[in-house]
Specification:
Layout: H1 2-10, E1 15-16, H2 22-39, H3 58-77, E2 87-92, E3 100-106, E4 111-117, H4 119-136, H5 140-145, H6 148-160
Antiparallel strand pairs: 1-2, 2-3, 3-4
Helix pairs in contact: 4-6
Length: 161
């Protein structure tokens, strides 16, 4: 994954954001909470599984959102010594203020994701995600075992073809 980080900068022209910036810290917290739920839900105990939203009535939605907020707070309370991630956020700057592109790469769990707004940025992101996933690649055992890494490559190549 360290090579993917270098590829993002050197070959894709991305600039890494300061890891202490508010934007990066917020995304880090969200991604860390999500990864705790995905990879180590036992660290959250009974907070790991939320009941389904029972109805679309405003009171039920508010109650469900409160449960989600509590779950997030529990995830944030998990000490980093028990679970941490290594997230890097990159951006591409455009002259048009309405164009935005960002890429997030997490090295411990092999996550590559991104977002964009504006026609040129979306087109650039699609191409960039394809390049990043191809560069990261898969091993034969990923193909044989249909790992998440393999599935992510296939999804990226199929969606962006």
């Amino acid at each position: 994954m360290e090579d993917v980080l270098a590829f993002a900068v050197n070959e894709c022209g991305l600039a890494e954001l300061d890891r202490d910036s508010v934007e990066v810290r917020e995304e880090y917290e969200q991604l860390r909470a999500s990864f705790i739920l995905q990879y180590k839900p036992e660290l959250l105990g009974e907070q790991a599984k939320l009941p389904s939203l029972e109805s679309e009535e405003p009171e039920a939605v508010i109650e469900h959102l409160e449960k989600c907020k509590k779950q997030f707070q529990h995830a944030m309370a998990v000490p980093k010594e028990l679970f941490d991630i290594d997230m890097h956020k990159y951006i591409k700057k455009y002259s048009n203020i309405n164009e935005n592109l960002d890429v997030v790469i997490e090295t411990k769990y092999g996550y590559i994701g991104g977002g964009a707004s504006g026609d040129k940025a979306v087109k650039d992101l699609n191409e960039m995600m394809k390049r990043l996933h191809k560069y990261y690649g898969v091993k034969q055992e990923d193909i044989d075992n249909k790992t998440e890494r393999y599935k992510n490559l296939i999804r990226t190549l199929c969606v962006i073809c």
